[in-house]
Amino acid sequence: AREQELERKQIEARVAASREALVDVRVARGLARLALSPTATVSTMAAASGLGVRAFGRRFMASVGLSPRTFGRVVRLGRAVARLAETSSGSDAALALEAGYADQAHLCRDLRVFLGMTPSEYRASRARHPNHVPLHDVRPIRSSQRSAHEACSASAGSVPAFPRERERFFR
User: Fold this and answer.
1) Computed over its alpha carbons, how large is the radius of gyration of the chain?
2) Alpha carbon distances (Å) from 101 to 46, 64, 132
3) Span 105-153, pLDDT tens digits
4) CB of 92 within 8 A of CB of 104?
5) Contact 56, 45 (CB under 8 A)
6) What is the pTM of this model?
7) What CA–CA distances, in Å, run from 103 to 71, 87, 92, 113?
8) Do residues 133 and 122 lie in contact, with contact meaning Cβ atoms separated by under 8 Å?
9) d(CA 76, CA 156)
10) Side-chain half-sphere of 119: how many Cα atoms within 13 Å?
11) End-to-end alpha-carbon separation of the chain, Å?
């Protein structure tokens, strides 16, 4: 009886491990879809994985740590930043289209959200620091977003006052 119980637990452990492997395979299928098409949507990634959109989103979040949409934005921004690093000047609109953005405004918005700077500011920063964006160069998105509470908190030294700094503080 003891041997049968031990054997049953081993089988359950194997089944659980295979289920986790299946999750990784399905998420990998969605990631492969994103790699093939820079403009892949969450629904196309989910369809490639064989899961529904919500189930894929939950499994993706558990495996990767980001939602599929946020991960797609990061990948797309990575392509744009690589192109920005290659070029010293040129059309940001053409670069945005090459990277998979609808237009230049979307590229600029993602750069401000993720890096805290515009394309021209990134190019200038890259000359000094080619492999990273130094924090002292990061400006607030809009200083008008500061509330009285945030200003008081910033002066007390508890929570940073600007949106970009707050997000880094709470990660």
Assistant:
1) 22
2) 21, 23, 22
3) 999 999 988 888 888 888 877 766 656 665 654 555 444 444 444 444 4
4) yes
5) yes
6) 0.62
7) 19, 18, 9, 16
8) yes
9) 38
10) 25
11) 50
